[in-house]
Amino acid sequence: MSYSAIKNRRTSIPVKVGHVTVGGGAPVVVQSMTNTDTADAEATAKQTAALARAGSELVRITVDREESAKAVPHIREKLDRMGVNVPLVGDFHYNGHTLLNDHPACAEALAKYRINPGNVGFREKKDRNFAMMVETAIRFDRPVRIGVNWGSLDNALLTELMDQNAKSAEPMDVREVMHEAVVQSGLMSAERAVELGLAKDKILISAKCSEVQDLIAVYRSLAARCDYALHLGLTEAGMGSKGIVASTAALAVLLQEGIGDTIRISLTPEPGGDRTREVIVAQEILQTMGIRSFAPMVIACPGCGRTTSTTFQELAQDIQSYIRTRMPDWQRDYPGFETLSLAVMGCIVNGPGESKHADIGISLPGTGELPAAPIFIDGKKAMTIRGENLSQQFKDIVEDYVKGRWG
């Protein structure tokens, strides 16, 4: 299934971020962000490489002080030596104008700058600081993301809109006023950047909120009022299943409506957890919606009283791990393999039927069934396997199929 088959996609201005195109009909881009101290160039390069290898097509890094800015060109050099060409995005707050101005090597090493209009400066300094960052972007021919955050809104703008609303004959709900403040902050900042000389194809906008319905309302409004490329993400999504569910609930609605050119899943990692989890979740959202293909999909039944054996659970987990392990080699040798679909089913009820819908399916014996597992390939029963090593037999079948179809 293609993205266009789901919904007509919103037309946006394409933006080049390094070698990656965002918007303009390009595939929805997956990005992520490091949580290392950027001043530690070794640790940041290592985590950036891990995120890139997991599938992050852009990686954002915090640039918050002199030591961080000085480390950025070294991080870029380390990545280049590792053969990791992922574009780096600099995340700036409060002092970005100073850091970019004082460290041109940092400005050059970054592929994009993120500016938060809510904290780029205050009162009379706001426009001057914003202008300094935009002028640096123009000088180095870099795009800028105008990144509005619900939690760091421009207080002057919000106060002005609240006052106007209070005087209105038909005042809006306070939350609606906040939605409007988020949207206006992004649009007005983009307009100001254009006035300063930044081309429209150098501007992306994000308008992040931490509540699902707020995010949907804000992006619908933003999408209807501009043609800038949009970065989607539920900010402060949370930890574990809560963060995954909340992000999916919000982004799936917007993506289904054709809104969004690049996404990030902002998961709070478990202590010592793997940062690449957020990349995999982003990929799975896009793939399960039929928008992009990143890795073969494994369909597996949830289990019931007919599947008291854990064989199908263990096989599904083993096959999923096997695919992840084989992906680097398959990506090199078998382009197109990402669309492969596998079914690992636990009994005769849905097993054969679901297996026929997949490229390769196995219907394992349920409770009381004969100890045999029919294999279906391209919708037809191809063979039956038996024995203790079902997992290895199935892997061999998958390996032969990939080689035969995409080799």
Automatic annotation (TrEMBL):
Any one GO MF annotation of this record: 4 iron, 4 sulfur cluster binding
Record's cofactor remark: Binds 1 [4Fe-4S] cluster.
Record pathway: Isoprenoid biosynthesis; isopentenyl diphosphate biosynthesis via DXP pathway; isopentenyl diphosphate from 1-deoxy-D-xylulose 5-phosphate: step 5/6
IspG C-terminal domain residues: 298-399
Ranges of residues in domain IspG TIM-barrel: 14-282
Reactions it catalyzes: (2E)-4-hydroxy-3-methylbut-2-enyl diphosphate + oxidized [flavodoxin] + H2O + 2 H(+) = 2-C-methyl-D-erythritol 2,4-cyclic diphosphate + reduced [flavodoxin]
Reported cofactor(s): [4Fe-4S] cluster
Keywords: 4Fe-4S, Iron, Iron-sulfur, Isoprene biosynthesis, Metal-binding, Oxidoreductase
UniProt-listed Pfam families: GcpE, GcpE_C
Root EC class: oxidoreductase
UniProt-annotated binding residues for [4Fe-4S] cluster: C301, C304, C347, E354
GO terms, biological process: isopentenyl diphosphate biosynthetic process, methylerythritol 4-phosphate pathway; terpenoid biosynthetic process
Enzyme Commission number, as recorded: 1.17.7.3
Protein role: Converts 2C-methyl-D-erythritol 2,4-cyclodiphosphate (ME-2,4cPP) into 1-hydroxy-2-methyl-2-(E)-butenyl 4-diphosphate.
HAMAP family: IspG
Family: Belongs to the IspG family.
Name of the protein this chain belongs to: 4-hydroxy-3-methylbut-2-en-1-yl diphosphate synthase (flavodoxin)
Native source species: Aestuariivirga litoralis
